[in-house]
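Dig into these lines:

——
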Amino acid sequence: MAISVKRDQSGPMRHVVRIRAHSFVVDEPPANGGEDSGPSPHDIYDAALGACKALTLVWFARRKGMPLEDVEVSVERDDSQERDGIYRLRTALSISGDLSDEQRQQLLAVAARCPLHRHDGGADQGGNGLEVS
């Protein structure tokens, strides 16, 4: 699968991302020289982690026949030490449904093992400077 990112000269930092049949604009906020006409690459990266956790929970619950009704994941970014190579993301999950305590614990454990979380070093400091909790 190829992903294309092409400059859109209608804005100083604006680009268009194309993935399969989908396209969306990425930009930077005015403080970084953009016009905030779309999410920044950091926003997309952080959202990808949240989406991965949510989709992984739904996939797992369906596979196991768990009565998961809703999932919400919030991602909080701390990029205060990014220049030092440390980028922190904290996720909070909210799940609903007629789930037992055991099923809830299983789902939380599965969320901690979503493919992007594992790829980026897990909850502890990975070799890439990303910390996810």
About this structure: Confidence is low (pLDDT under 50) at residues 122-128. Strands lie at 3-7, 15-19, 22-26, 68-78, 87-97, 130-132. Helices lie at 41-64, 101-111, 115-119. The chain is about 30% helix and 30% strand.
